[in-house]
Amino acid sequence: MIDITFFWISFWLYLAGFLLFIIYYSLNRKILSKVALWVFGAGLISHTVAIILRWRLSGHDPWTNMYEYISVMAWTSVLAMIIIIKKFKNPVLGVCLSPISFLLISIGSLLPKDINNQLVPALQSVWLSIHVSLSIIGEGAFAVAFGVSIMYLIKSKKKSTHKKGSHYSRLPSLELLDEINYKAISIGYPVFTVGALIAGAIWASKAWGSFWSWDPKEVSALIIWIFYTIYLHARFQKGWKGNKAAVMSIIGFLVTLLSFFGNYILGGLHSYA
Asked: For residues 171-193, b (16+ Cβ closer than 10 Å) or e, as one string?
């Protein structure tokens, strides 16, 4: 299928971009960061073509199974990475964000890629489109927070020992990493709330006659929402920043990753996804 061809082109371009960012950081050659960003941009264009072709070939939204969901989420993370690097004018951010994008597309590369032209009635709803698209954007933001939080902990641990001009000294400042972590979650949280919970409940009501069924996927979405609610509450009320905020962000995204595949193990109403 032609969409899969463009997907694999994106996969190899993302891999090349990721490696270029690593080499750039190791050798401190700024030109390599520019090349890496251009390579990721080319991969994003190819990935966009793959998603559009999938949409046309299937005749429905390109996120009705796990491969499509992860693929679109990887696309979202790459777009976010490019925007963040351009906004903060700090290419080293690509070192922590590009692995997340490549991880997501790598997961997608391992999943079945067959097109399902005959959707079950539950998947034929505009509320499903709202539910899934906003969930992807929200979880993509959580992925960005995860990437910068890992870099925050690395930088924080080495802060007292690294020398000027060392690899660690060239990492973004702790203040910038903490800021991106907070802003990413602040964006992802309301989007995820509307998409995963509110639109999801409306879709469930129309598809199955009930707003809430304690389905494993519903429960996992609720757990994710509660976790990030606690994160924001701790940040605002307790002043949690820095290491504590980074650790919470990392745990939150790991829980999000586990939720992707819970329906394969536990079944439920989302078992077709």
From this structure: bbebebbbebbbebbebbbebbb
